[in-house]
């Protein structure tokens, strides 16, 4: 979406701001890196929209990656104060961000699949875990417990074999309905992101979605994934 928002002077553009003055959560008043915050701008009609790619022009403001904080910013009308303009923050802005983050993750999964860095199917996932090429594993929320347990056993075996290395993380981020809508014929029950730039992108976006849905914390089981070099 292209949004120019209420025009701001160049010095007001937060994209060039430092961690103290530019990138500060308008709810908690805590500064953070771009990866810890979501940027928002005003569209030409004055509606607040998320700028996940941090590319839209004009004055922006930031909220920590936490659905509850986005909802709070809407309820307390903090966007108008932060953007220094009369803007409208939709009541479902928090849900919109969730949908966009989920779509962003699904798109990255499809990109990684084309690059050969995302595989699905229990046998391929098991093999990727056991040979150490898996950065993270993913299960549909409706995945059978037995299938999840078998891959968990492979994750534990790899972890024990590497001794001190972090366990490969495991995510369950998509409901069956989300999977059908976002992935279509690429929907999976079990999948794994593999080593490589696209695979790393999948893990990064999965962590972002998990944190957004779970109070700024990821509920993914396991550690950071790859063995240390």
Automatic annotation (TrEMBL):
PANTHER family: BLL0784 PROTEIN (PTHR34215), YLXR DOMAIN-CONTAINING PROTEIN (PTHR34215:SF1). InterPro entries: Ribosomal_eL30-like_sf, YlxR, YlxR-like_sf, YlxR_dom. This is YlxR domain-containing protein. Gene3D superfamilies: 3.30.1330.30, YlxR-like. Residues 23-88 form the YlxR domain. The lineage of its organism: Bacteria, Pseudomonadati, Pseudomonadota, Alphaproteobacteria, Hyphomicrobiales. It comes from Rhizobium hainanense. SUPFAM superfamilies: L30e-like, YlxR-like. Pfam families: YlxR (PF04296).
């Amino acid at each position: 979406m292209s949004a120019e928002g209420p025009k701001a002077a160049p010095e007001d553009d937060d994209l060039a701001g430092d961690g103290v003055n530019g990138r500060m959560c308008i709810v908690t008043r805590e500064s953070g890196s771009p990866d810890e915050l979501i940027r928002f701008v005003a569209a030409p009609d004055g509606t607040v929209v998320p700028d996940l790619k941090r590319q839209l022009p004009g004055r922006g403001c930031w909220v920590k990656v936490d659905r509850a904080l986005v909802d709070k910013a809407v309820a307390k009308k903090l966007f108008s104060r932060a953007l220094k303009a009369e803007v409208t923050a939709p009541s479902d802005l928090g849900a919109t961000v969730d949908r966009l983050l989920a779509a962003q993750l699904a798109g990255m999964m499809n990109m990684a699949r084309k690059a050969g860095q995302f595989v699905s199917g229990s046998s391929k996932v098991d093999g990727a875990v056991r040979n150490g090429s898996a950065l993270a594993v993913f299960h549909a929320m409706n995945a059978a417990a037995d299938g999840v347990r078998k891959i968990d056993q492979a994750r534990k075996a790899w972890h024990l074999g590497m001794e001190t290395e972090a366990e490969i993380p495991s995510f369950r981020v998509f409901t069956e309905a989300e999977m059908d809508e976002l992935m279509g014929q690429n929907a999976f029950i079990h999948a794994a992101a593999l080593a490589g730039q696209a695979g790393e992108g999948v893990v990064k976006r999965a962590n972002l979605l998990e944190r957004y849905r779970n109070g700024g914390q990821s509920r993914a089981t396991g550690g950071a994934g790859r063995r240390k070099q």
